[in-house]
User: What shape does this take?
Amino acid sequence: MITAENLTKIYGRNLEPALKSATFEINDGELVGFAGLNGAGKTTTLRLISGIIVPSSGRVKVDGKDIVKDKIAASRNLAIVPELPNFDITQKAIPLLHYYAGFYGMDKNETDQRIETLLKTFDIWDARNKKLRTYSQGMKKRFSIVSALLTDPKNILYDETLNGLDPEGVRSMRMLMLDQKKQGKAVFLSSHILSELQNIADRVIIIKKGSIIKILERSEIPSLGASSIRIVVSNPDAKMIEILQKYGDVDQSGTEFLVRDLKVSYEKAGLLNGDLARAGYIVTKFDISGEGLERYFLSLVGDSVA
Assistant: This one.
């Protein structure tokens, strides 16, 4: 569990705080989204929670431990996946992960098993003997996630982790975070992909110019509504139409489909993507339109999504 109490950060002699009196919590078994424009204070908040920087005032507790006063204990069950990889790319995966494990006093046999499981889960095992600088950007991002999950932390921060991922990568991350939630972990996801937050978050915290202006509860999100879903599928057939018709009226143009006049809430509309994947269809585009979280977000911040 993560709690932030009146968290404030002022950089240097700036009169305007980067973060102002932020108070919120992420409970065990909860996935909380964090939305705001670039420069709103999202990354500052995550860096304060993780103890990378120290607050000007206020405090953060992780499982009851103060991140400043008792940093080692507080950090033991906390991990952050940064937006950009920040590891030594001259190293190879396994030696570097063993180096990280040494900081936490992990048993060698336990570490070996954990490393193999994670590298296979995130499809890096075959590249384990290559230097990290040879990895693609997607592989580097997955290695950042592996590094963060090495100790099996109870509290996990994701800083724009969905950025730059292909649709399959986004789907994998979605399933990972939902699984972590089911395991009772506290998951905090900063993202500008508002459709994902709308689909998976228990609550969404909206920040503007360093101030939290709204904490949107799960019960409020479906009421934001959806009007249509636009889908492109590589291998459509007649049976797929039957699946789509459960969600609304269907128009087709080649491999592109428009599901309109939806019969379901925004939350349930997002489940169609999974239904199609489980039925063996290859979805290359999946866009939900309507009022939704994005338009509600824009009405609050008064700007374009960034």
Summary: The chain has a mean pLDDT of 88.
